[in-house]
Design goal:
alpha/beta; Collagenase (Catalytic Domain); 4 strands; globular
Length: about 140
Amino acid sequence: MPVKFFSEDTKFNFKNKNLIRNWVKSTIKSVNKNTGCINFIFTSDKYLLKINKEYLSHKYYTDIITFNYCEKDNISGDIFISIDTIKNNSARFNVTMIEELHRVIIHGILHLLGFDDQSDKEKAVMREKENYYLERLKNLS
């Protein structure tokens, strides 16, 4: 099934789509799941805030919102990512924008795979998994 990329309320042009598609698919396959339909939608802060308010009743900015449509072993979902927040966080964390974007992309996939980040323990596991799959991306490049 497809892994697709879209933009809403931003002029962001995502490069290396095939590399990221392969990375996402290999990540899902590595946990014995199947890739369903996964949509990455790159947005502005304003657009993502609207979604956050409307669907989650949250009144704050965020870098990512993941809507999970998984059924059994088929991993599907919509992953909304704020390019504005990615840019700000890349400066804040002293990494390139693309490095921060890759971290957020895999973060969304990990949510679809059932990982959460509500507690400190969950956050630590999530960060460990992010780092692991980011290293795997380097090996695909």
